[in-house]
Amino acid sequence: MKIQRFFAQAVSVAVMLAIGSMGFDSAAMASSWKMPWRAGQSYGINGSWHFDGFLKTTTAFDVAMPAGTEVLAPIESTVIYQCAARGGDNHRSILLQASTGQRYTLVHVKTTDIFVGKRYRQGDVIGRIAGDRVNDASCAISTGPHLHFGLPSQSFSVDGQQFTLYAIPSRLSSTNGSIVAPSPAPSTGVYTVNFSAISAPTGVNVRSAPSTTAPIVGRIAPNQHINFDAWTFGQVVNDHWINTPDARWYRIAGTNNWVASAVVNGNAPGSRPMP
Q: Alpha-carbon distance 46 to 10, whole Å?
C-alpha cells in the first residue's frame, strides 16, 4: 500500500486482553515523558478521555496521526504484551512498562519487529500508524488511522502538556527524537526508474503528458499490473485511496505515455508525492 495515507476521522474502541495494573503516578516521574512522535510535529485530538482495555481505566485519547507516521517510545520502556489484530496488516496493540514503573499503551501501530521483553530507549521507533481498519475484539477495533495513547492516569504531564480529569489539550506537539529534515526537492525533469504498480479498482486513463488536460491515449482495466520506467512531477491529482495531493506521474515502460501516481497503488523508488 502507499506510504502516504489519508487520516480518517475516527474514534476508536481499543479492546484488548486485560493485563496488569496501573503503575505509579507521580508528577516527577511523568516530567521526563515525551509525545510518541517526532519533534516538530503537531497533531489534533479526537474526542476526550475514553476506556483503555489494557489498563482497565478511562485514561486514553486518540491522536489524529496519519497512516505511516512514525510512532516513537515516549520514555524508556519494555514491551510486556502485544497482539496483532486478526485480518489486519500487522496492526498491533502494545502494552509497555516505562522505566519509571508506569504502564501505558500504544494502539493501532503497524510493526513486525516487536516481541515481549523488547526494550526501547526514548525516541526509538516502535512502528508506524496502521492504515488499515480492523475489527478484532480480542486485540483492537479501529475505524481509521490514528494513535490510541493510553496514559497511566488522567492527571499526567507529557512533553510539558498537562492532562487533567476534565481536559485534554486540543492539539499536542512533541519534542521527542530528532526532527526529520525534509528531503530536498529534485530539479524538474524526468527520473529513470524501473518498478510496477497496480491500477485503481475503477481503471485508469493513460495520457500523452503528465496532466489531466493532456489527451487520453488509452485506458487500463482495474487492478492490473503496470510496468513503469520513469517518473516526473506534473499536475496534482488527489490520491484515489486516501484523497491526499500527489503530483507524481509515471511513464509506462517503452512508451511516452503517462499515468497519474494518484490512481495506481505503488510508489516510484526515490519519489515523494509533492515537490
A: 7
CA proximity to 231, closest of 207, 210, 202? 210
What is the Cα–Cα distance from 69 to 259, expressed in whole angstroms? Answer: 27
**Which of 234, 227, 181, 241 is closest to 207 using CA atoms?**
234
Residues 149 and 129 sit within 8 Å (Cβ to Cβ):
no
Task: Specify the pTM.
Answer: 0.59
Dihedral (CA of 72, 73, 79, 82) sign: negative
Angle CA(230)–CA(233)–CA(236) in degrees, nearest 5? 130
Give the span between the Cα atoms of 192 and 107, in whole angstroms. 39
Residues 78-123: tens digit of each pLDDT? 999 999 999 999 999 999 999 999 999 999 999 999 999 999 999 9
Residue 233: all three cell numbers together: 512531477
Report the alpha-carbon distance of residue 230 to residue 236 in Å, rounded.
Answer: 17
* CB atoms near residue 223 (< 10 Å): 12
The neighbour count for residue 201, using CB atoms within 10 Å, is: 11
Measure the CA–CA gap between 123 and 86, rounded to whole angstroms.
28
Determine the residue type at 251. Answer: R
Q: Determine the Cα angle at 64 with ends 58 and 68, to 5°.
A: 120
Question: To which residue does cell 484523497 refer?
Answer: 243
Contact 163, 45 (CB under 8 A): no
CB 275 within 8 A of CB 266: no
d(Cα 184, Cα 186) in Å, to the nearest integer?
6
| Cα(30)–Cα(35) distance, integer angstroms | 11
User: For 131, how many CA atoms within 13 A lie in the half-sphere containing its CB?
Assistant: 13
